[in-house]
Amino acid sequence: MLSDGRAPPPAIPARLDAPTGLLADALGRPLHDLRISVTDRCNFRCVYCMPKEVFDKDYAYLPHSSLLSFEEITRLATVFVAHGVEKLRLTGGEPLLRKNLERLVGMLSSLRTPGGRALDITLTTNGSLLAKKAQSLKDAGLNRVTVSLDSLDDTTFKRMNDVDFAVADVLAGIDAAHAVGLGPIKINMVVKAGMNDQEIVPMARHFKGSPYILRFIEYMDVGASNGWNLAEVIPSADVARRISAEMPLVSLQANYNGETAARWRYADGGGEIGLISSVTQAFCKDCSRARLSTEGKLYTCLFASRGHDLRALLRDGRSDAEISAAVGALWNVRADRYSETRTINTSGIDEHREKRVEMSYIGG
Ligand code: SAM
Ligand code: SF4
Ligand code: SF4
User: Fold this and answer.
1) pTM of the entire predicted model
2) Which of 32, 164, 253, 272 could form a disulfide with 288 if both were Cys (CB 3.0 to 4.6 A apart)?
3) Which amino acid residue places its CA nearest to atom 4 of ligand 2?
């Protein structure tokens, strides 16, 4: 730790002959997917992510000068793409709160893989501003969106977003995104026992036969402020059982290695759903995701307590080759497998929890 409390920048190897190009971490996992948090702010206060008691009016959000600029993000993304990243996901906080996000989308959509292919550029959003922004995002080069929606019932949804936001406005955002071709659209529902688990079957019913893929996410112990408790997790197996009782499901092959959601289809041809079992069935084995925080720290795991300060390298005037070598060196030693070890040891709450960064900062 530096005297001003910042994490030291990643070490730049003395020799820059390796590692460049495609990478494999200490467990043989490639680097394929980069999630970029563009803001730590949000207009929702979801109880499982940014509870009001912590994220109140006195909460110290990052000052604008700390945020990576669009030019800095694009420069880092270029380095990651040269190391094998083919998929970029913009997230936050609420990414659509970042001013002129379309300009960043445009800059990122001009990047190409070493093989000359365009990237897959996606965005995860709470949907609140989507109806307004869908067309301009599409025009800028965004490929797809994932929209979070935890309930179809206004009372339950408002209890979860805690800012009185109505379901109809999110549904309007989803429809607008579909109309402009930002699909296939995925809908993320975080299931919290006693809060919205009664909505599992109604959500499945509503989205069955629609162009949208509903994904049920196990409530995770991410960050340090949501008061997570194992008893509030509904295992994906239970979700599948509840849906299957009314609408039989058949399991499907993964689309690709490292896919977070297990895929299931309705036996009657009514489309598919995804189950993200981050707690009961860890998928670290194929995890090829890196995360870039709003202020430019690289996190090699969602549950990491420490990031590596790439912004320091950018602002210290380091060359692309030096930054590339630093990213390569960090990925090469990566051995994160938090969810697997947590599954093995599940005893309740992790003792290092206080030190973990929040999901709104690191990007979900
Ligand atoms: N604000 C955007 C949104 O809500 O879609 C993007 C950021 S949010 C942190 C990304 C995703 O993480 C959302 O789908 C959200 O539901 C999910 N998420 C947040 N906290 C979670 C938790 N404790 N467990 C599981 N998923 C969580
Ligand atoms: Fe905001 Fe998304 Fe977190 Fe909800 S899940 S508080 S919308 S960042
Ligand atoms: Fe990847 Fe870490 Fe999640 Fe495992 S716990 S899947 S290593 S982000």
Assistant:
1) 0.93
2) 32
3) 46
